[in-house]
Model the fold of this input.
Amino acid sequence: MSEPQIPNQLAEIRDDFLGLQLRDRLQLLLEFSNELPELPERYRDHPDLFERVEECQSPVFIFIEVDNDTVHMFATAPPEAPTTRGFASILAQGLSGLSTQEVLELSDDFPQSLGLAKAVSPLRLRGMTGMLARAKRQIRLKSIT
Amino acid sequence: MTIERDPAPQFVEFSNPERLVTAGWLDERLDTPGLVIVESDEDVLLYETGHIRGAVKIDWHTDLNDPVTRDYIDGEAFAELMSRSGISRDTTVVIYGDKTNWWAAYALWVFTLFGHDDVRLLDGGRAKWESDGREYTLDVPTPAPTEYPIVERNDSTIRAFRDDVLTHLGNPLIDVRSPEEYSGERTTAPAYPEEGALRAGHIPSAQSVPWSQAVAEDGTFRPLSELNDIYRTGAGLKDGDDIVAYCRIGERSSHTWFVLNYLMGFENVRNYDGSWTEWGSLVAVPIAIGTEPGEVPSR
Done:
């Protein structure tokens, strides 16, 4: 089976996960969780811009900014939901800086390629799939206008 | 029982006060031989962000559920899990977790399926421990493996399967989900992911008593008089009743099972862990919608 081409920064994240044992994959997810960037000043007082990711058990909100066809993803999730924060952080780091086309062409199954299903369970991983789908939808909406 | 119970006065009125410990009691006994603390959370990474010193992690998805069949692990896998967690058959186990002990109660219920004798809940779970200002650590213990016997699960007394529920109809059923799920407006708790039930509503005749009614603001269990108001006066439960509780996948109803069984002393309480994700997708079973329990279907 040939691996579909994905942008380098996403491939690096994927390979970092796949290069680890299951237990260490959780640790890496925790590192991502701790690295979820704070919202930039200009978005801090704008909860209205953010979309709730209903597929996640914990309250997580995402917002996509498209600037000159370059995607930036922002997310907030509470510290008591580290798994969800980790998912958001992977996508925020993995998608930001890509072109809209690169993100839209990314497989919806990207979350399944990280080798996390056994570590966190497939059900929990659905949250990340939902997050990616919502990010893509926001890009589509923002690319039209 | 190997370790004395917590004599806290608020537990004395419960039918099984030995099933609860306070944060203060636990904090003084972190290094007690024969006591193992287990953290069980909804969020699989929460333990890694900090936990009670000495606590081991047991995850409901990755440890307690069978990876293939929709069922719990078998006796062999449970013995292996206990061994690597440093738990012997006579160990006192204290379980705590996030979300006011949803998953901790679920883990406790699974321990009970395997007949582990002394398993207790930390009243208030993580939230109470934190609001008390107690400490967490990042150190993960490496317990010495134990010899835990292979004990087969006993599914007959505290677990109900779908056919048991069908024959149970006419006896008290407690639906512990949110009012929106009960009435059929939605199949998942507000803000929770879709888990695949094809129909919305509740099992006919089930009383709606959302699980969270059993806990106070600080996450600890309510006193017996308030529990009586909720479950006896409110839901009409009586001594001697044969009761089945259910929710969406059996985790919130484990919490209610704990309350009815160990705090209020109902002797025949079963948790229907198939719950709504099973019932709401079964072909040709009766379902009621709306805020009323509905009639017991004729068979």
Remarks:
- Strands of chain A lie at 51-52, 61-67, 70-76.
- The mean pLDDT of chain A is 88.
- The interface with chain B takes residues 26-27, 29-30, 33, 52, 54-59, 79-84, 86, 118-121, 123-124, 126-127, 130 of chain A (CB under 8 Å).
